[in-house]
Design brief:
With 385 residues, this protein is α/β, with parallel strands linked by helices. The protein contains 14 helices and 12 strands. The chain starts with 5 loop residues before the first strand and ends with a helix. It holds the Pfam family Bac_luciferase.
């Protein structure tokens, strides 16, 4: 068997701007509770400040709330946009959550993905990646060292800085950086020894990125820095929806998919979403064919994950994008079907039951003979009395 995969969900989140934000927020927390009950490994919560759809502003607060409602699922920021925050405060909040969750916290970080966010903060987009690298160096030191650090940049100053509380876990807090299309984040991960969360579901109409090449960027940077990177620490996000049949799955998400494509990507961000030669109404099937999303039956979902494994040469975890493409009861059913019938094919949970079933089947004649002998013996003893 190949290395078992971890599974989780990635809550950007994206909610229709016609829905009351309070209710969508509480539903997000209910979803994380459900994921915990269904034995998912992780839940990642995003940070965004404009655009209306991605309406979680402070993922740390959501994580603190759901930490009290869950038992074992790991909780991650997905991601904290480092250029918007003083790195000392990011590290402080990370340690606080690490203790509140008893070691279940993952610090997911990135440069930020919505251009209107840094605009409001007066940050040039060309500054976001350099700021991310500067902040990461400080955060790694603060989380991992007892020594003070002094650092002055054009956007933050630290003087004799040291966290007064160490992380809860002896091994420290896991840090993972998000990666989209450029090699920058993968190289940062390799150079600094970080985990990676890659976006495997690009915006509609865009071909799936060469994720295998992306991973090689991390390996090359790690080698140059005298480090190694582990595919077990590589997570890939993917939009997945599962129903009993492929036809049912397509019918369930078609309207929500269309609303996401045209209401979010096209209307809000004015980005091209069409595929040449594909009329509106058939874009769902086209994006499935491109490998951008996985929609269908249990077998379709299994096949989609296997293709992704083959195309990447392997990764450590998959995060299901938590889209509102169907009503809550159907989305709940999709997560349940995935947890019960898809994930176990990749975690090793089915190995022992199948071995046992095969063994009993192969040796059934032996057990049947003994069973019949026992019955005959019992009947004989009953007749003798």
């Amino acid at each position: 068997m190949t290395t078992p995969l971890k599974f989780g969900a990635f809550l950007v989140p994206l909610h229709d701007i016609n829905e009351k934000p309070t209710l969508s927020l509480w539903r997000d927390m209910r979803l994380i509770e459900l994921l915990d009950e269904l034995d998912y490994d992780e839940a990642w919560v995003g940070e965004h400040h404009s655009g209306g759809w991605a309406n979680i502003l402070a993922p740390e607060l959501v994580i603190a709330a759901v930490a009290e409602r869950t038992r074992r699922i790991r909780l991650a920021t997905g991601v904290i946009s480092l250029p918007y925050h003083n790195p000392f405060m990011v590290a402080s909040r990370a340690v606080q959550l690490d203790h509140l969750t008893r070691g279940r916290f993952i610090l997911g970080v990135g440069a930020g993905s919505i251009p209107s966010d840094p605009h409001m903060l007066g940050i040039e987009q060309t500054e976001t990646r350099p700021r991310t690298a500067e902040a990461l160096e400080v955060i790694q030191h603060l989380l991992g060292s007892d020594e003070t650090i002094t650092r002055k940049t054009d956007w933050f100053t630290l003087q004799d800085a040291r966290l007064q509380v160490a992380p809860y876990s002896p091994g420290g807090i896991e840090i993972a950086i998000s990666s989209a299309l450029s090699p920058n984040s993968m190289r940062t991960a390799g150079r600094m020894g970080l985990g990676v969360m890659s976006f495997g579901s690009p915006r509609p109409g865009i071909p799936l990125p060469d994720l295998g090449r992306q991973w090689r960027y991390a390996e090359e940077a790690a080698a140059e820095a005298g480090r190694t990177v582990d595919r077990a620490d590589w997570r890939i996000t993917q939009t997945v929806y599962v129903a009993e049949t492929r036809e049912e799955a397509y019918a369930d998400v078609r309207a929500g998919f269309d609303r996401w494509v045209h209401g979010y990507w096209e209307d809000i961000f004015h980005l091209p979403v069409g595929i040449e030669g594909v009329p509106r109404g058939q874009e769902l099937e086209a994006n499935i064919e491109m490998g951008n999303i996985i929609v269908g039956s249990v077998d379709d979902a299994v096949a989609g994950i296997e293709r992704l494994q083959e195309n990447t040469d392997g990764f450590g975890g998959m995060l299901l994008m938590a889209h509102d493409w169907a009503p809550w009861d159907k989305m709940r059913r999709s997560y349940e079907l995935f947890a019960r019938y898809v994930a176990p094919r990749f975690t090793g949970a089915l190995v022992r039951p199948r071995l046992s079933a095969d063994w009993v089947t192969a040796n059934g004649h032996l057990f049947e003979a003994g069973y019949q002998a026992a019955i005959q013996q019992a009947m004989g003893q009953a007749a003798a009395t």
